[in-house]
Amino acid sequence: MAKKSAQTSFFSLPAELRLQIATYALDQPVDAGFELRSADATQINHYPQLGPGSPIGLVGLIMAGPYSPGGAYSPAANLSLLLVCRQFRLEFTELAWRSTTFFLGINKSTRDKRAMAGGVPEGRLCMLRKVAIYSPPWDDIVRWGQWPFDAECVRLERLSFVMVIGLSDIAQFVRLLRRLQNVKQLKFISQSDAEQQAKFRNTYNQLIGAIMKEDHYQRYDASGAPHVGDVWWEWSFNDVEKSFLLVAEKPAPVIPEEEYLQFMKPRIDVLMADMARE
Fold first, then answer.
1. Nearest one of 176, 181, 61, 75 to 130, comparing CA atoms
2. What is the pLDDT of residue 169?
3. Percent above pLDDT 90 for the chain
4. Residue 94 CA to chain centroid, in angstroms?
5. How distant, in Å, are the alpha carbons of 67, 118, 223 from that of 31?
6. pTM for the whole thing?
7. What is the pLDDT of residue 2?
8. 16, 90, 104, 138: which could form a disulfide with 168 (CB 3.0–4.6 Å)?
């Protein structure tokens, strides 16, 4: 009598292979949760899934720009793999949270440093890698120390700011940028009407100008100079999305001022030309 061949189940696979399969299943693009909209798209969008208790933690109406949070997106869909069985939750919870983009709401009932984390427990907050904050509270954000949400365990691939209003204090924000660590990318996304979007490019230019001005001052003119800062940011603007991106880099080493000015000249020229077109 022929013997039955042994059946292979998912949990009979080596742990490393199970993890690779789960990584593939949970993978999201870096822009997950956002979508480009046509110029004639509805400008105000309601997101009923963003209610209390939802993983997103955001409530209400959002004024949509051309690059906006997708109305059909919910992080719960990506986390649903954890509902398959208890073993999946044990093995893949941290991976699932690291792989998923979360939109965090603002808890205005408390002034706790992590209020903007939308009630996400600290243990879960430390698992996040891709976070978007709607209508960010700039006065609170500029008070962060070296770490996002003032939590050293948080290590973000991308932190997105979905902006309805501009930066409240560019000088303070630049000082934050010079010390902020554990964030690979910062993305700023306009969600205002056409008039405010026209000012968004001006905000970008002011910020970039302030970054360069502060860097030069701290290197050559400040008391106790040079101070190179903990991080340098490379910048780019996306006209289609009405967004701009800052990518964290190591700061340039200390060099003579004349060499530094030559190094920065192409960036300054681009900024001046862009400001002339406003």
1. 75
2. 92
3. 43
4. 19
5. 10, 20, 41
6. 0.82
7. 55
8. 138
Give me the residue label for tokens 């501009």. Answer: 166
- Cβ-in-10-Å burial (0-12, 13-18, 19+) of 252 comes to middle
Place of tokens 């061949």: 5
Task: For residue 198, count other CB atoms closer than 10 A to its CB.
Answer: 13
Looking at the predicted structure, is the pLDDT value of residue 48 above 50? Answer: no
Written as six digits, the tokens of 150 are 């003032």
Domain ranges of the chain: 58-64+71-276
> What does the CA dihedral 17, 21, 26, 27 come to, rounded to 10 degrees?
90
Which pair of tokens denotes residue 149?
A: 């949400």
Residue type, 235: W
Encoding tokens for residue 241? 């999305």
Band of residue 209 on the pLDDT scale cut at 50, 70, 90: very high
So what's the pLDDT on residue 117? 56
Cβ–Cβ contacts within 10 Å for residue 9, how many? 7
Peptide bond into 29 cis (omega under 30): no
- pLDDT of amino acid 31: 81
Alpha-carbon span 95 to 27, nearest angstrom: 10
Name, in order, each residue with C-beta under 8 angstroms of 268's C-beta and a sequence gap of 6 or more: 212
pLDDT digit string, tens, across residues 82-117: 988 998 888 899 999 999 998 886 544 444 444 455
Q: Which residue carries 């299943």 as its tokens?
A: 25
Amino acid residing at 162: V
Instruction: Map tokens 């742990």 to a residue.
Output: 15
